[in-house]
Design a protein that fits this description.
14 helices, 342 residues, 12 strands, six-stranded parallel β-sheet
C-alpha cells in the first residue's frame, strides 16, 4: 500500500477529511470519540505528514494558505506585504498560490492546500459566476479551517472578509471627470464575473444618474483586469469616430495598458484624452506622470484580513463574535489628468 493520506485516515476512521484535518492541525472542535478513531487509524495505517509539511519549521501546523489571482499585479504584492506584517509577528508561515485569474487553477490550488495541513486560508477569489460558485463554495467549506476573503466576495457564503467600497471609488472618479466638464467618458471596466468589476461599473453609472446625464452604452468597454485588455480597449477608444474626451480605467494593470496605447498613438494624457485610473501605480510616480487615481489602503487590507484570521485561529467563533465583513474607503487623488482641455 502506498503512503496513507488524510482521506485514507478519514475513511478508516469513518469520519470526514475535514475532521481529520482539524485534528491534525488542532484548528477546531473534534469530539473525543472522533479523536480516538483518528488516533487509532493513524497508528494502524502508519500515517506520517507529507514531506512538504515535515520540512516546514513548525511541522506544518503554523502554515497559512494565501491564494491570489495575479502575482504580477503590484496591488496583490502590497496585499501580501500587509499579510506578512501580521503573520511574521506570530511566527506563522505562508504557502502562496497564484491562480492567474483562472478558475481551474484556483480549484487545483485549493485542492493542493487542502492536503497540506494549512491552518487557515486568505484568498482573493477569481470569480463568483453562478455556474462555478456551487462547486467552489463546497470546496472552501469542506476545508474545515478559518477562511478570510480579500477584495473579492463569494456569493452565498458566510466567510469573513475585507473589501473596498468600489462603488464609491468609481463614483468619485467618474463624478470628478463630469465636474471637470467631460460628458463623453469611456470606462474600461473589469469582468462582470467579479464583484469589484460589477461595483466599479455601478459607480460609473451612478455618477451619470446623480448628475442627470444620459448614459452612452458605447462608452462601456469590458476588460479583464489585465494590461493587454487595457491596451486593446484604449486603442479602440482612440479610434472611435466621436472620440471620448476622458476615460476611467478600473484597475492598475488596465491603466498601464491604456497609457501604453496612448503613448504609442501619440495621444497626450490630460490634453487629448483625460484619464483617471483605479489604484496607484508606483512607477508612474517615479516617472513624474501625474495620473489621477482612486487610491486604496492596500497593505491595510492584507493586514486586517490576517488579523481577522488570527482571531479565528485563537478560538473566536463567528457565533460569539459574528461574521466580520470590513469595508474600507478609497481616496480620490486628483493630479491634473482629469481636467478638460478645450
Amino acid at each position: 500500500m502506498g503512503k496513507a493520506t488524510i482521506k485514507d485516515i478519514a475513511k478508516h476512521a469513518s469520519v470526514s477529511p475535514s475532521t481529520v484535518s482539524r485534528f491534525i492541525n488542532d484548528s477546531g472542535y473534534v469530539s473525543d470519540e472522533a479523536r480516538e478513531k483518528i488516533e487509532k487509524a493513524i497508528k494502524e495505517l502508519n500515517y506520517t505528514p507529507n514531506v512538504f509539511a515535515q520540512n516546514l519549521p513548525t511541522g506544518g501546523s503554523n502554515v497559512v494558505g494565501v491564494v491570489i489571482p495575479d502575482i504580477n499585479n503590484p496591488f496583490f504584492g502590497e496585499i501580501i506585504k500587509g499579510i506578512a506584517s501580521i503573520l511574521d509577528a506570530e511566527n506563522l508561515h505562508m504557502i502562496l498560490c497564484d491562480t492567474d485569474e483562472n478558475t481551474d487553477k484556483e480549484l487545483k490550488s485549493l485542492a493542493m492546500l487542502k492536503g497540506q495541513m494549512i491552518k487557515g486560508l486568505l484568498i482573493t477569489p477569481t470569480s463568483d459566476k453562478n455556474e462555478f460558485n456551487s462547486e467552489y463554495l463546497g470546496l472552501l467549506e469542506s476545508m474545515g479551517i478559518p477562511i478570510v476573503l480579500i477584495d473579492r466576495d463569494v456569493k452565498y457564503s458566510n466567510f469573513d472578509g475585507v473589501f473596498l467600497d468600489s462603488v464609491q471609488g468609481a463614483f468619485e472618479a467618474t463624478n470628478a471627470l463630469i465636474q471637470a466638464g467631460h460628458r463623453r467618458i469611456a470606462i474600461i471596466a473589469g469582468p462582470l464575473t467579479s464583484k469589484p468589476g460589477r461595483d466599479r461599473l455601478r459607480g460609473y453609472k451612478k455618477a451619470f444618474e446623480m448628475n442627470r446625464l444620459p448614459l452612452d452604452e458605447t462608452m462601456i468597454l469590458h476588460g479583464d483586469f489585465r494590461e493587454k485588455s487595457g491596451y486593446q480597449l484604449m486603442k479602440h477608444v482612440i479610434q472611435m469616430e466621436d472620440r471620448p474626451t476622458a476615460a476611467f480605467t478600473c484597475n492598475n494593470l488596465m491603466n498601464l495598458g491604456a497609457i501604453k496605447a496612448m503613448v504609442e498613438e501619440g495621444v497626450e494624457i490630460g490634453t487629448d484624452i483625460s484619464l483617471i485610473g483605479f489604484d496607484e501605480i508606483e512607477i508612474l510616480n517615479t516617472l513624474a506622470m501625474n495620473i489621477s487615481v482612486v487610491s486604496r489602503p492596500t497593505k491595510k487590507m492584507g493586514a486586517v484580513a490576517a488579523q481577522i484570521l488570527l482571531e479565528r485561529l485563537s478560538g473566536q467563533s463567528k457565533e460569539s463574535a459574528g461574521i466580520k465583513r470590513i469595508i474600507l474607503s478609497p481616496k480620490l487623488l486628483l493630479k491634473g489628468s482629469e481636467k478638460l482641455v478645450k
